[in-house]
């Protein structure tokens, strides 16, 4: 299974607690993690919980997202050895965007900067 296929099949509900844990270890909050997810995907508290409850794969999670933020293209840099702006697979790119935003949160960046305001 290649890198893209692995990301497609990841269960969002399995990764979500890790995002929260990573943020909380650095003194950030679940609310901030959720705000990042809402900003990137257009989900809200209810629709995000539905995705978690039905154990959506990353593929379904991003394909069913109400609206990917038009400013997502402003997310640049390297995460997990990949330059996010150069990733060609749209699902992989969105997953890495999310990784990058959570990483910025854990590194102490201000929310306005993370959300490309």
UniProtKB/TrEMBL annotation:
Pfam families: DUF2200. It comes from the Bacteria. This is DUF2200 domain-containing protein.
């Amino acid at each position: 299974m290649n890198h893209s296929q692995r990301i497609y099949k990841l269960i969002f509900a399995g990764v979500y607690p890790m995002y929260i844990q990573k943020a909380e270890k650095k003194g950030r909050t679940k609310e901030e993690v959720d705000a990042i997810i809402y900003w990137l995907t257009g989900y809200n508290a209810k629709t995000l919980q539905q995705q978690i409850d039905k154990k959506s794969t990353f593929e379904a999670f991003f394909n069913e997202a109400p609206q990917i933020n038009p400013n997502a293209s402003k997310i640049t840099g390297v995460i997990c050895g990949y330059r996010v702006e150069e990733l060609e697979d749209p699902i992989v790119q969105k997953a890495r965007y999310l990784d990058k935003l959570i990483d910025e949160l854990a590194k102490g960046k201000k929310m306005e900067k993370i959300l490309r305001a």
